[in-house]
Amino acid sequence: MQEKKLAIIATKGSLDWAYPPFILASTASALGYETEIFFTFYGLQLLKKKLSLEVTPLGNPGMPMPMSMDKWFPVMLTALPGMQAMMTSMMKKKMADKGVASLEELRELCQEAEVRLIACQMTVDLFDMPTSEFIEGIEYAGAARFFEFAGESDICLYI
Amino acid sequence: MADFDQELDASGLNCPLPILRAKKTLAPMETGQVLHIIATDPGSVKDFEAFSKQTGNELMESREEGGKFHFLIKKA
Asked: pLDDT tens digits for A8-62?
């Protein structure tokens, strides 16, 4: 059986959106896929040694809120200071209670499974992000490098 | 239940951890050896079927007992 290939572009830097790239990449590698994730723009937050990702209820009508708050809580109030921190800690607690892996764990599993993690060099330069803040074992490259792998891939996802 | 060589308790773990742990546990096992997995994630039933199909490791048994899911997978 020839090895299948999965290419992912990760563009989002919030706690909730950090999950799909790492869940799909780690699962794909368990199924025998060769996998690569290209992190660009806000997605680069997912490569920081110290992850400080948050989830925001603001402008997100699909987000289930505790105590049916979404039914009576005015949208305006989700913009209040402290709301984001509160929703983030509630989301983290819920995930831990339900046995959902932490992002750090999933990312480590990806690295163990030799998922290649590529940071977009252009974004790193654009935001003056110090490379010392990123985890070890990642590659820095550009769009052409992504296509080298994506062009041969069986599945290509933009997240 | 048939004999097995190794056991993995993935109770309380959610997608995709049971699959990832199973893959890791199977890695050092020898061809023909059987892994018994216990899980509580209802999604794991379809997931282990799919895992078996895609990796070639045979899913010998899949059943529910006392709110837990039990799987027997033979390493290919």
From this structure: 999 999 999 999 999 999 999 999 999 999 999 999 999 999 999 999 888 877 8
Closest-CA residue in chain A for B47? A27
Say if B62 falls within a structural domain: yes
With H, G, I as helix, E, B as strand and everything else as coil, classify residue A6.
strand
Q: Please check whether residue B15 is in contact with residue B41, taking contact to mean a CB–CB distance below 8 angstroms.
A: yes
Query: What type of residue is B26?
Result: L
Tell me how far apart the alpha carbons of residues B67 and A111 are, in angstroms, rounded to a whole number: 33
ipTM: 0.84
Question: The domain spanning residue B24 has which CATH number?
Answer: 3.30.110.40
Within a 13 Å sphere around the CA of B6, how many CA atoms are in the beta-carbon half? Answer: 20
For chain A, give every domain's residue range.
5-55+102-158
CA distances from A142 to A18, A114, B38 (A): 21, 20, 43
User: Residue B19: which domain range?
Assistant: 6-66
Contact B16 A30 (CB under 8 A): yes
| Helices assigned H by DSSP within chain A | 15-30, 69-72, 83-97, 103-112, 121-126, 143-150
pLDDT tens for B17-75 read: 999 999 999 999 999 999 999 999 999 999 999 999 999 999 999 999 999 999 999 99
Shortest CB distance from A30 goes to which of B13, B14, B20?
A: B20
**Domain A5-55+102-158, CATH class in plain words:** alpha beta
